[in-house]
Amino acid sequence: MRADRVFAYGAAAGLLGDRLLGDPRRGHPVAAFGRAAGAVERVLWRDHRGWGALHTVVCAGGAVALGAVAARAVRPSPAASVALTAAATWAVVGGTSLGREARAVGQALEAGDLAGARARLPHLCGRDPQALDADQVARAVVESVAENTSDAVVGALVWGAAAGVPGLLGFRAVNTLDAMVGHRSPRHRRYGWASARLDDLAGWPGARLTAVLAAAAGDDPRGALRSWRADAERHPSPNAGPVEASFAGALGVRLGGTLSYAGRVEHRPVLNGAGRPVAVPDIERAVRLSRRVGLLALGVCAAARLLAAGGRS
Question: What angle do CA 54, 59, 63 make, to 5 degrees?
Answer without folding.
Answer: 140
